[in-house]
Amino acid sequence: MLRSLGVDAQWRVLPPDDGFFQVTKRLHNWMQGKSGHLSKSDRETYIAYSERVAKQLGKEDADVWVVHDPQPLALRTMAPLSGPAIWRCTLIAQPPMGRLRVLDSWMRHYDRVLFTLPLFCLDGLARSRWAWNTPRLITCHQESTPRQDPRF
Questions:
Q1: Are 91 and 116 in contact (CB under 8 A)?
Q2: What is the pTM of this model?
Q3: What is the overall mean pLDDT for the chain?
């Protein structure tokens, strides 16, 4: 959509890695209210993978970086990404989410943090550093019918 408006937008996808996936799956679960903790081994797996990806990225310039969810969160501290950066947490967290301190060490390097609802903001994050934006899912079909809701 951004490209159709003339914005030079690019999407980067993390290469697959089973160990990394298992760690980030646990992070997702914890952010959504399940109990648990990030072990030393989990943290080492996450950091090692993030460092590999950061090296692959090299020096990248952008008008703004939008980094989605916990998987690439650490990249801001590891890759020489020039330009402002936003971390977008699209997880629908279950309150009380609690504070995942390991995320704080990476999250604080972003210029802004965007959550899906104010209720899902990580505890202790200064209000001036975060915003919220509830995503809307709109399905378009070739044979669509007019919508009753005037907001669409």
A1: yes
A2: 0.74
A3: 76
User: Rounded CA gap, 97 and 60, in Å?
Assistant: 33
Domains of the chain: 17-132 (3.40.50.2000)
CA separation for the pair 114, 133 (Å, rounded): 7
The span from the CA of 115 to the CA of 110, in Å, is 13
Who wins on pLDDT, 102 or 9? 9
pLDDT of residue 64: 83
pLDDT of res. 139: 46
What type of residue is 42? D
DSSP string, the chain: -TGGGT-------PPP-HHHHHHHHHHHHHHTT------HHHHHHHHHHHHHHHHHH-SEE-S-EEEESSTTTTHHHHS-EES-EEEEE---PPSS----HHHHHHHTTSSEEEESSGGGSPTT--GGGEEE---------TT----S-TT-
pLDDT at 10: 80
Cα dihedral 45/48/51/56 (nearest 10): -90
Q: What's the Cα-to-Cα distance from 63 to each of 43, 116, 132, rounded to whole Å? A: 30, 23, 21
